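Below is a filled-in request sheet from our internal design queue. Each sheet records the structural input a requester submitted and the sequence that came back. We keep these sheets so that new team members can see what a complete request looks like end to end.

REQUESTER: design group, bay 2
PRIORITY: normal
MODE: inverse folding
CHAIN LENGTH: 128
BACKBONE (tokenized):
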């Protein structure tokens, strides 16, 4: 299997960390912007897009800070995706830091996908 490449992207976002955390850590919050619908049973989250389903395991979360998932089909790899809320100590500016993995020829496509998703999130938050 081809080795996936880790990438990070930063999105400045105008919202409080408390509010953002609800949108990145709960099934109802994630279904507002990340996928059409999200169900969870314990650590297992099912993301639904246009009738297709992908399952991810919640690896870790820290209140008002980050969530980290691994797609079930990436089991046995070091691949994951993490959504982290970063607050600048001085300016108090809030950013979402995305860490994800993609195959070498799909990195740009994956970044564009995240840009679209975060754009949807900003619209939901009213900070577009």
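RETURNED SEQUENCE:
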């Amino acid at each position: 299997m081809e080795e996936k490449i880790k990438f990070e992207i930063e999105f400045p976002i105008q919202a409080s960390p408390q509010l953002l955390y609800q949108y990145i850590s709960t099934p109802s919050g994630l279904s507002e912007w990340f996928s059409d619908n999200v169900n969870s049973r314990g650590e297992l989250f099912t993301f639904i897009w246009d009738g297709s389903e992908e399952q991810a395991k919640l690896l870790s979360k820290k209140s008002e800070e980050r969530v980290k998932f691994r797609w079930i089909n990436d089991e046995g790899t070091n691949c994951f995706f993490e959504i982290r809320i970063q607050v600048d100590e001085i300016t108090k500016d809030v950013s979402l830091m995305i860490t994800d993995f993609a195959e070498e020829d799909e990195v740009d496509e994956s970044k564009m996908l995240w840009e679209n998703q975060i754009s949807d999130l900003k619209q939901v938050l009213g900070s577009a």
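SHEET NOTES:
- The chain has a mean pLDDT of 95.
- The beta strands are 4-12, 37-41, 44-49, 52-62, 66-71, 81-87, 94-103.
FILED BY: M.R.
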